[in-house]
């Protein structure tokens, strides 16, 4: 292990926070059970400061959903309309659960009326209703296109099967069994002032990340909506536990075979390789990572990945939108970590 590369990774985070470019950051790099770097930066005095994860929520949602698959309550080959009857008509009848898990359903990432829904503080059921009507972008199963609304439908199916709020189901079946006591879909036990405050950026990808509104990332509405595609809060330690389960699945949450399937490329002949809820495209994380590496980014400025070859996990949480921080911090830090352990 190259200790110099790890120190360079820490120095790079320190540089971005000392300049004020990133106001909060926390990192935990672990290999083979040993912490190589665990620290908070900037206003994150505690390395276990709670951050809004954004899309790192997605593999958490899919893990909860796969608990139901393990129990035989849903099959990946089931049509979505079996559980959501109003999701029907045209190519929607061909959308299978598997398509939602692999971003190959044809659904859009966000609804055309997404901003209007947020402006009026719409509940999740309104997003579900819109998803049941929105035109598909392509025939299901023919290509991959990132789709947050497909992840939303996974949570909706789970709620209809269990008759539990999905946030409560995740806590009971995923977070607590893995010891993720500081993780919640929505705010859970957390109070907004006690969490890292997301930054705004003029070049941010989404309008709610560009200026303060009553529906932005820091608003009470968004923080406790519990969006299954991006509304979880957590810490570097909890996310490291989550990644560690997929490196060495022990049956606490999923059957080992199911956990392995989630971090195995599905439909490799499509335009982009995905696991079940996990990004697996080569080069997505550190350039020196193996082809088996899995993980996810979050638009709030977060990244988490694990490389089975080196038994390494890397979690870096920041508050600078990923559209600005991915090339300056998230990617370069991941590169240094991957080089250090290769």
Q: What do these coordinates show?
A:
The chain is α+β, with helices and mostly antiparallel strands and 342 residues long. The chain has a single domain, classed as Beta-lactamase, CATH 3.40.710.10. It has helices spanning 3-18, 57-70, 97-101, 114-119, 124-131, 148-162, 166-175, 220-225, 236-247, 256-262, 322-341, and strands spanning 24-31, 34-42, 51-52, 184-185, 232-234, 294-298, 302-307, 312-318. Helix 2 crosses helix 7 (166-175). The longest helix has 20 residues, at 322-341. It is globular. The termini are close together. The mean pLDDT is 96.
How would you concisely characterize the structure shown here?
The chain has 342 residues and is α+β, with helices and mostly antiparallel strands.
Taken as a percent bin, the fraction of beta residues is 5-15%
What pattern of helices and strands is seen along the backbone?
Answer: HEEEHHHHHHEHEHHEEEH
As a percent range, the share of helical residues equals 25-40%
Mean pLDDT: 96
Report the top-level CATH class.
Answer: Alpha Beta
How are the SSEs placed, and which strands pair?
Elements: H1 3-18, E1 24-31, E2 34-42, E3 51-52, H2 57-70, H3 97-101, H4 114-119, H5 124-131, H6 148-162, H7 166-175, E4 184-185, H8 220-225, E5 232-234, H9 236-247, H10 256-262, E6 294-298, E7 302-307, E8 312-318, H11 322-341
Antiparallel strand pairs: 1-2, 1-8, 3-5, 4-5, 6-7, 7-8
Helix pairs in contact: 1-11, 2-6, 2-7
């Amino acid at each position: 292990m190259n200790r110099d590369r790890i120190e360079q990774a820490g120095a790079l985070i320190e540089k971005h926070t000392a300049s004020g470019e990133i106001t909060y950051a926390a990192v935990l790099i672990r290999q083979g059970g040993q912490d190589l770097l665990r620290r908070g930066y900037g206003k994150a005095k505690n390395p276990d400061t709670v951050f809004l994860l954004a899309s790192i929520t997605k593999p958490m949602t899919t893990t909860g959903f796969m608990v139901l698959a393990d129990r035989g309550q849903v099959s990946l080959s089931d049509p979505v309309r079996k559980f959501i009857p109003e999701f029907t008509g045209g190519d929607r009848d061909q959308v299978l659960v598997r398509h939602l898990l692999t971003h190959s359903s044809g659904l859009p990432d966000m609804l055309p009326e997404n901003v209007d829904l947020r402006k009026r503080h719409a509940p999740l059921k309104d997003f579900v209703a819109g998803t049941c009507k929105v035109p598909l972008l392509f025939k299901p199963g023919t290509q991959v296109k990132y789709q947050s609304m497909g992840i939303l439908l996974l949570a909706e199916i789970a709620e209809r099967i269990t008759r539990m709020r999905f946030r409560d189901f995740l806590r009971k079946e995923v977070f607590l069994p893995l010891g993720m006591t500081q993780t919640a879909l929505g705010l859970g036990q957390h109070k907004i002032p006690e969490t890292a405050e997301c930054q705004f950026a003029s070049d941010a990808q989404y309008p709610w990340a560009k200026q303060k509104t009553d529906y932005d990332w820091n608003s009470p509405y968004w923080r406790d909506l519990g969006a299954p595609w991006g509304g979880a809060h957590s810490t570097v330690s909890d996310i490291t536990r989550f990644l560690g389960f997929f490196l060495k699945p022990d049956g606490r949450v999923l059957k080992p075979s199911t956990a392995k399937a989630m971090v195995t490329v599905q439909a490799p002949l499509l335009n982009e390789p995905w696991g079940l809820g996990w990004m697996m495209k080569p080069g997505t994380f550190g350039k020196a990572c193996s082809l088996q590496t899995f993980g996810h980014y979050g638009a709030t400025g977060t990244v988490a990945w694990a490389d089975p070859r080196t038994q390494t996990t890397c979690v870096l949480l920041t508050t600078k939108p990923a559209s600005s921080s991915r090339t300056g911090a998230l990617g370069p830090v991941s590169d240094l970590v991957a080089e250090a352990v290769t």
